């Protein structure tokens, strides 16, 4: 679906003064051209023949250098000149019977080959006389030197693509292969008799008449072309052609063979040779085969031409085999293709023959002939150089989907005297794939093309999505909004013919248009021819379904632009500004063909039958028009200008970082965006003030009213909202927005986008089309329809493109809720409403929103027609959150008597929505047995399962029946309520039911205020007592007037205050109870409370003091002794108790000291090991490897690499899912300190932290003990002093240990940077960084413990 558009045009003329100093006008001509890639220059040769020296020709070498872009003011400079013998004098063999005279003075130039050798930067010229001349281009004054001559002259020459080999065909019918230093590698005959090394082998099975011949039928089995019927075309020039394959592995030679014993007439033969000049194959005989030859660089096709039919002017065919041309229609002329093995492989028919003209010429029998064929360097474009009586033309052909398209025609400029224009050379640029170089007798023409898609820019709702493809004089039109016709077919073929206008003599046949364009505001289409002819059509495209033609074009206007004949027009666009539908503004870009003039833009305004043309000169050449609002033009230096046709002012409005051939204007947030794609695949966007590059691998793009869509070479389509792009340009540092993406087929390119259809048309590399509906485009249209209240159209689009119907609510919830009546009017089908409700129920919306919408839809449907929408109403009840099945069945109950058939169908439907068993239970819970039976029957339940149960229920009284139903449905609270209403005789059963299902709270609410309340409380208390919730049980027993049970519960809960309160109220003895409670409190280490109970309720001072001393409450014990007047207890109990406490503390300090020293020594050992053996220290076992199920049986030391390698496992992944028990076991294993590893060090650090916390507790106990030791005997004071000494020593030791352990280690000791560190991007550097993250010091993960303040430190009387 792409067309070739002219991108750059250069025309440099060589005046007579710039030729040689000959006095004969017209005696010099350009004859050969070469490309110097190193200097970005062209090298040209001109030939001059002197009448005084018939045996010589003067060859002049010129250079035409260009700096970057095409230069038009550069004057060619002479490199050197030399003399060479002419063909007639130097080559006596040329008068042989097979050699034909030239058609014109310059048809057979002396220079056969002109080529630049890049290694030596030398120009090599091969002449027909047999001379090989070299010119060193790096010399200050280059001079020509003949490095060798070939006897008999040279008939053909061609250099290999790698510039290492030169193939020559000599006048003595020899084939030579030479090196770049002109050493002969091979020499052989030009006309070998054998087929070649790839000759087909007959394996002895199968015959031709048994094989399949396709559409040719069985007649092909017997058809054969006799040797006498294979002849040469009258237009054959008789010269040898040589062409190389793109990889330089093979070359082909086309030569005119003479008559011999086997073949009775001259004919063409094509042979394929290897790089070493070994014959590989010979093409099958083709009658009418001509001289043109070119091998496609990609290597799959060899191109030549073939004539068919009879020869004009011959009255009757020859008796020995006819005309010698191919059998077929008279005038048929094909471009034929061969494979490397010599077999034919398709053809395309030229469109030059005009049977009405009956032109018969002396030189061109059919009025034209094919001079040469050639391929672009990327093998995509085939050039056909045609010599016609009325002037030369070069056609550019491309192929897609097995169809050949004629994309462009280049007509040779006429001579100064009006004579037909002739090309002298046609050559493709070896690196720029779409640049072609043409020369005439005095001009060098360079034309660069680019692929472009001629798509309609029309906007919704009138967007047709039309695309035009140029194929010669036919325009293939397809509106993708209504049809997706695969190429090469199309919806409509518009045949073009030059309008009947006053022009200089034009070719016999209408030429191919150079460009075409669609209008954006109307269904108009314009075609442009290069001389300046414009024709505008009204396409009348049908946008909707219906009968009649899809496109019915009619000519609206045709005419000629100003400067016709002196300008070359190349691009046409419509002005997209808003305005009158009747007014048409067409903008055409052209360039003067003479001189170095800049571009001009011709603005054509048409209103009715009147037209006006305004020509505005532009500041540069080879720019590009932009289809947008107003007249927009981009200069070669990437500046975007706004052109005012009225004042002819040119104002800069934007700037791109590089020239963008593909450019579009888009509107967003009342600002204009310019989007451009360069040949470097960079996509730029600018608003005139700021510029951003969106991507650097883009191969196509298009715009819609809301999105910029582009595809990349990574085979991804991106969708960028224009509004977001406008915001990004307003902030220089704003990041690019998140873009929607979609994977596309490899090599896909955008053809067009049709917003109204939410479609994007892509073309694959092989030429076929694919239409997709990207989610961003779909969502844009759906949201627009929702906002406009067009719910029906939006709903249809969502169903078609599988869009979640929750979008109706998510887009604008409040507006949709208000528009539910309108939604139900437009989406009135019951199934559609059910689909929408189901989507709501399964979507991510909040429960309250779903319920609100379902309720509103249900109410609306009930008001509209309850019977019609009964299924939708049931759906609304079912999809609510939570679902209301009972309300749905209640609706059926309302209709059961009046509409039994409707209810039966509705029951079937609701069973489809809800689980049958759940619906059966819901119906049963409504206590309506008829509804239960209906549901059971339609759910196909077994009657033996439910009928006995229903009969049993029918025999019961109402409330007990309800109880049984609710109990069956596990509605226990409701069942208990029903049972409470069944009568007092059911109370015991109710209590048992409460106890069975733990319904104590509900039972209390039922029987509160009745005489049964205390019985329920007692039951509740017993249940709490069994659960060991003694405190709660005690309060419940007290409410139930069960003091005995309350006493037991208080005693079990150790609530001794409430216990002795209740004991006092019941006038019970307290002594026994007090001893029991004190014993329990002591076992719970609640010594102070135990002492209080013994004093207050057992009156036992001694036991109370003992309890206080056990709890280290020495001050309280001394107070009680003094208060109760028992001084003997001080020496008897307190003094020994303090010494016992001091001994316990000393023992604990000793244990801690021993533990601390062992752990410190072990930590020191581990840290030495960490430095000396880091692999063993960190890599003995990684916890990540616990998930590995398959381990080797061979024990081996872990390495730096294997520590970070996850071994694959063949066991199911379920084995890696650990239970909580196994996880705890693993944590204990890791935390237990595996010996000699980092885990052991971490375990020891945690142990030291716990030791510090333990010592802090000992210090607290010591601070409570020391004051009492100082107040007692000398022995006690001595113990106090020693205790303080022990505490101080251990505290200092512990503090020093903590500081040593948690001291930050130097980098060198922790595996820091070493000499010879790897580079930042190397694998070793990444592994080292991972190592540093992995080998973390355990001291960094464990918080350093802090010792408590030494509050135990007292100043003793003796100075200690």
UniProtKB/TrEMBL annotation:
<dbReference type="GO" id="GO:0005634">
    <property type="term" value="C:nucleus"/>
</dbReference>
<dbReference type="GO" id="GO:0016301">
    <property type="term" value="F:kinase activity"/>
</dbReference>
<dbReference type="GO" id="GO:0033588">
    <property type="term" value="C:elongator holoenzyme complex"/>
</dbReference>
<feature type="domain" description="ELP1 three-helical bundle">
    <location>
        <begin position="1129"/>
        <end position="1301"/>
    </location>
</feature>
<dbReference type="InterPro" id="IPR056166">
    <property type="entry name" value="TPR_ELP1"/>
</dbReference>
<keyword id="KW-0539">Nucleus</keyword>
<dbReference type="InterPro" id="IPR056165">
    <property type="entry name" value="Beta-prop_ELP1_2nd"/>
</dbReference>
<keyword id="KW-0808">Transferase</keyword>
<feature type="domain" description="ELP1 first N-terminal beta-propeller">
    <location>
        <begin position="16"/>
        <end position="431"/>
    </location>
</feature>
<dbReference type="GO" id="GO:0000049">
    <property type="term" value="F:tRNA binding"/>
</dbReference>
<comment type="function">
    <text>Component of the elongator complex which is required for multiple tRNA modifications, including mcm5U (5-methoxycarbonylmethyl uridine), mcm5s2U (5-methoxycarbonylmethyl-2-thiouridine), and ncm5U (5-carbamoylmethyl uridine). The elongator complex catalyzes formation of carboxymethyluridine in the wobble base at position 34 in tRNAs.</text>
</comment>
<dbReference type="GO" id="GO:0002926">
    <property type="term" value="P:tRNA wobble base 5-methoxycarbonylmethyl-2-thiouridinylation"/>
</dbReference>
<dbReference type="InterPro" id="IPR006849">
    <property type="entry name" value="Elp1"/>
</dbReference>
<dbReference type="InterPro" id="IPR056169">
    <property type="entry name" value="HB_ELP1"/>
</dbReference>
<feature type="region of interest" description="Disordered">
    <location>
        <begin position="1211"/>
        <end position="1233"/>
    </location>
</feature>
<feature type="domain" description="ELP1 N-terminal second beta-propeller">
    <location>
        <begin position="469"/>
        <end position="751"/>
    </location>
</feature>
<keyword id="KW-0175">Coiled coil</keyword>
<feature type="domain" description="ELP1 alpha-solenoid">
    <location>
        <begin position="775"/>
        <end position="841"/>
    </location>
</feature>
<dbReference type="InterPro" id="IPR056164">
    <property type="entry name" value="Beta-prop_ELP1_1st"/>
</dbReference>
<dbReference type="Pfam" id="PF23797">
    <property type="entry name" value="Beta-prop_ELP1_2nd"/>
</dbReference>
<feature type="domain" description="ELP1 TPR">
    <location>
        <begin position="960"/>
        <end position="1119"/>
    </location>
</feature>
<comment type="pathway">
    <text>tRNA modification; 5-methoxycarbonylmethyl-2-thiouridine-tRNA biosynthesis.</text>
</comment>
<feature type="compositionally biased region" description="Basic residues">
    <location>
        <begin position="1215"/>
        <end position="1227"/>
    </location>
</feature>
<dbReference type="Pfam" id="PF23878">
    <property type="entry name" value="TPR_ELP1"/>
</dbReference>
<keyword id="KW-0963">Cytoplasm</keyword>
<feature type="region of interest" description="Disordered">
    <location>
        <begin position="307"/>
        <end position="331"/>
    </location>
</feature>
<feature type="domain" description="ELP1 alpha-solenoid">
    <location>
        <begin position="850"/>
        <end position="953"/>
    </location>
</feature>
<comment type="similarity">
    <text>Belongs to the ELP1/IKA1 family.</text>
</comment>
<dbReference type="Pfam" id="PF23925">
    <property type="entry name" value="A-sol_ELP1"/>
</dbReference>
<feature type="region of interest" description="Disordered">
    <location>
        <begin position="1303"/>
        <end position="1344"/>
    </location>
</feature>
<keyword id="KW-0819">tRNA processing</keyword>
<dbReference type="InterPro" id="IPR056167">
    <property type="entry name" value="A-sol_ELP1"/>
</dbReference>
<protein>
    <recommendedName>
        <fullName>Elongator complex protein 1</fullName>
    </recommendedName>
</protein>
<feature type="coiled-coil region">
    <location>
        <begin position="1142"/>
        <end position="1173"/>
    </location>
</feature>
<dbReference type="Pfam" id="PF04762">
    <property type="entry name" value="Beta-prop_ELP1_1st"/>
</dbReference>
<dbReference type="GO" id="GO:0005829">
    <property type="term" value="C:cytosol"/>
</dbReference>
<dbReference type="Pfam" id="PF23936">
    <property type="entry name" value="HB_ELP1"/>
</dbReference>
<keyword id="KW-0418">Kinase</keyword>
<feature type="coiled-coil region">
    <location>
        <begin position="1273"/>
        <end position="1300"/>
    </location>
</feature>
């Amino acid at each position: 679906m792409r067309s070739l558009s002219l991108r750059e045009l250069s025309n440099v003329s060589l005046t007579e003064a710039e030729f040689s100093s000959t006095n004969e006008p017209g005696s010099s001509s350009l004859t050969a051209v070469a490309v110097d890639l190193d200097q970005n220059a062209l090298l040209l040769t001109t030939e001059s023949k002197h009448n005084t020296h018939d045996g010589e020709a003067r060859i002049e070498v010129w250079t035409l250098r260009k700096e970057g872009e095409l230069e038009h003011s550069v004057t060619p400079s002479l490199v050197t000149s030399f003399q060479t013998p002419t063909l007639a004098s130097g080559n006596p063999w040329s008068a042989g019977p097979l050699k034909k005279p030239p058609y014109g003075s310059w048809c057979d130039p002396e220079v056969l080959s002109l080529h630049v050798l890049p290694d030596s930067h030398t120009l090599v010229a091969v002449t027909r006389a047999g001379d090989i001349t070299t010119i060193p281009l790096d010399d200050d004054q280059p001079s020509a030197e003949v490095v060798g001559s070939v006897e008999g002259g040279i008939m053909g020459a061609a250099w290999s693509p790698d510039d290492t080999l030169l193939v020559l065909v000599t006048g003595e019918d020899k084939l030579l292969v030479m090196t770049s230093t002109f050493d002969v590698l091979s020499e052989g005959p030009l006309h070998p008799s054998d087929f070649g090394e790839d000759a087909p082998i007959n394996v002895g099975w199968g015959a031709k008449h048994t094989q399949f011949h396709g559409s040719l039928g069985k007649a092909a089995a017997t058809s054969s072309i006799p040797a006498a019927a294979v002849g040469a075309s009258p237009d054959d020039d008789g010269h040898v052609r040589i062409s190389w394959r793109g990889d330089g592995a093979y070359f082909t030679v086309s030569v005119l063979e003479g008559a011999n014993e086997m073949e009775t007439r001259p004919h063409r033969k094509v042979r394929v040779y290897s790089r070493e000049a070994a014959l590989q194959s010979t093409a099958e005989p083709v009658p009418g085969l001509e001289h043109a030859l070119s091998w496609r660089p990609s290597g799959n096709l060899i191109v030549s031409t073939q004539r068919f039919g009879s020869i004009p002017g011959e009255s009757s065919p020859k008796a020995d085999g006819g005309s010698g041309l191919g059998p077929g229609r008279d005038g048929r002329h094909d471009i034929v293709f061969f494979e490397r093995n010599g077999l034919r492989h398709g053809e395309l028919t030229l469109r030059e023959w005009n049977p009405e003209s009956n032109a018969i010429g002396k030189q061109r029998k059919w009025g034209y002939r094919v001079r040469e064929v050639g391929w672009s360097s990327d093998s995509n474009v085939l050039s056909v150089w045609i010599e016609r009586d009325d002037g030369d033309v070069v056609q550019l052909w491309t192929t897609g989907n097995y169809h050949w398209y004629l994309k462009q025609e280049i007509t040779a400029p006429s001579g100064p005297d009006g004579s037909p224009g002739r090309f002298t050379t046609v050559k493709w640029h070896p690196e720029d794939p779409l640049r072609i170089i043409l020369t005439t007798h005095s001009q060098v023409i360079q034309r660069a093309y680019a692929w472009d898609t001629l798509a309609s820019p029309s906007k919704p709702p009138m967007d047709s999505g039309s695309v035009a493809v140029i194929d010669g004089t036919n325009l293939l039109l397809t509106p993708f909004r209504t049809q997706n016709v695969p190429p090469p077919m199309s919806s409509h073929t518009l045949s073009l013919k030059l309008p009947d206008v006053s022009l200089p003599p034009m070719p016999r046949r209408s030429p191919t248009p150079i460009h075409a364009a669609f209008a954006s505001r109307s269904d108009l289409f314009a075609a442009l021819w290069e001389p300046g002819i414009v024709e505008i059509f009204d396409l009348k495209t049908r946008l909707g379904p219906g009968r009649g033609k899809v496109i019915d074009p009619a000519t609206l206007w045709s005419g000629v632009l100003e400067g016709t004949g002196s300008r070359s027009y190349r691009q046409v666009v419509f002005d997209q500004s808003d305005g009158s539908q009747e007014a048409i503004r067409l903008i055409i870009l052209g360039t003067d063909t003479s001189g170095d003039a800049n571009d001009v833009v011709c603005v054509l305004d048409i209103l009715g039958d009147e037209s006006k043309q305004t020509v505005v000169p532009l500041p540069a050449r080879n720019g590009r028009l932009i289809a947008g609002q107003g007249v927009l033009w981009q200069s070669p230096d990437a500046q975007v200008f706004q052109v005012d046709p009225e004042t002819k002012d040119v104002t800069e409005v934007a700037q791109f970082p590089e020239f963008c051939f593909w450019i579009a204007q888009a509107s967003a947030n009342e600002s204009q965006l310019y989007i451009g794609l360069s040949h470097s695949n960079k996509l730029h966007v600018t608003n005139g003030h700021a510029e951003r590059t969106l991507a650097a691998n883009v191969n196509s793009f298009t715009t819609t009213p809301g999105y910029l869509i582009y595809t990349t070479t990574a085979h991804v389509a991106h969708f960028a909202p224009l509004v977001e792009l406008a915001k990004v340009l307003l902030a220089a540092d704003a990041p690019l927005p998140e873009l929607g993406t979609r994977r596309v087929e490899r090599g896909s390119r955008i053809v067009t986008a049709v917003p109204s259809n939410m479609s994007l048309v892509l073309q694959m590399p092989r030429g076929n089309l694919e239409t997709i509906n990207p989610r961003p485009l779909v969502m844009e249209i759906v949201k627009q329809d929702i906002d406009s209240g067009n719910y029906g159209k939006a709903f249809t689009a969502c169903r078609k493109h599988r869009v979640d119907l929750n979008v109706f609510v998510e887009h604008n919830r409040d507006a949709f809720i208000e528009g539910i009546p309108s939604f139900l009017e437009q989406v009135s089908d019951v199934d559609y409403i059910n689909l929408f409700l189901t989507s709501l129920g399964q979507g991510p919306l909040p429960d309250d929103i779903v319920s609100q919408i379902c309720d509103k839809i249900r109410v609306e449907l009930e008001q509209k027609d309850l019977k019609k929408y009964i299924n939708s109403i049931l759906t609304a009840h079912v999809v609510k959150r939570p679902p209301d099945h009972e309300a749905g069945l209640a609706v059926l109950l309302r209709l059961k008597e009046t509409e039994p058939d409707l209810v039966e169908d509705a029951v079937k439907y609701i069973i489809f929505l809800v689980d049958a068993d759940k619906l059966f239970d819901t119906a049963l819970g409504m206590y309506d047995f008829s509804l239960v039976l209906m549901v059971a029957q339609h759910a196909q339940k077994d009657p033996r399962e439910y009928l006995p149960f229903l009969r049993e229920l029918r025999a019961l009284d109402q409330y007990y029946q309800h109880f049984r139903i609710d109990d069956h449905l596990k509605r226990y609270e409701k069942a208990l309520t029903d049972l409470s209403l069944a009568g007092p005789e059911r109370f015991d059963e109710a209590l048992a039911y409460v106890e069975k299902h733990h319904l104590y709270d509900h039972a209390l609410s039922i029987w509160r205020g009745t005489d049964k309340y205390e019985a329920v409380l007692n039951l509740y208390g017993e249940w709490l007592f069994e659960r060991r919730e003694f405190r709660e049980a005690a309060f419940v027993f007290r409410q139930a007037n069960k003091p005995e049970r309350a006493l037991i519960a208080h005693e079990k809960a150790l609530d001794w205050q409430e216990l002795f309160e209740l004991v006092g109220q019941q006038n019970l003895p307290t002594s026994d109870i007090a001893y029991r409670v004190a014993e329990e409190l002591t076992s719970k280490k609640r010594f102070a409370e135990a002492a209080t109970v013994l004093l207050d309720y057992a009156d036992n001072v001694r036991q109370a003091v003992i309890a206080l001393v056990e709890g280290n409450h020495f001050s309280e014990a001394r107070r009680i002794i003094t208060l109760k007047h028992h001084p003997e207890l001080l020496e008897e109990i307190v003094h020994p108790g303090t010494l016992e406490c001091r001994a316990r503390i000393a023992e604990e300090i000793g244990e801690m000291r021993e533990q601390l020293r062992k752990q410190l020594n072990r930590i020191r050992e581990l840290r030495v090991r960490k430095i000396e053996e880091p692999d063993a220290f960190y890599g003995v076992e990684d916890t990540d490897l616990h998930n590995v199920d398959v381990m080797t049986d061979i024990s081996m030391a872990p390495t730096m690499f294997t520590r970070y390698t996850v071994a694959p496992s063949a066991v199911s992944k379920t084995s890696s899912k650990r239970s909580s028990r196994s996880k705890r076991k693993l944590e204990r294993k890791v935390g237990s300190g595996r010996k000699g590893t980092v885990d052991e060090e971490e375990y020891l650090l945690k142990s030291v932290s716990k030791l510090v916390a333990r010592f802090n507790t000992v210090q607290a106990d010591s601070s409570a003990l020391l004051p009492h030791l100082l107040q007692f005997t000398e022995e006690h004071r001595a113990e106090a002093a020693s205790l303080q000494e022990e505490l101080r020593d251990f505290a200092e030791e512990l503090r020093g240990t903590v500081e040593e352990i948690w001291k930050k280690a130097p980098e060198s000791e922790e595996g820091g940077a070493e000499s010879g560190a790897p580079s930042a991007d190397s694998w070793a550097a990444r592994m080292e960084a991972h190592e540093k993250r992995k080998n973390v010091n355990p001291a960094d993960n464990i918080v350093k413990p802090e010792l408590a303040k030494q509050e135990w430190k007292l100043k003793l009387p003796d100075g200690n």
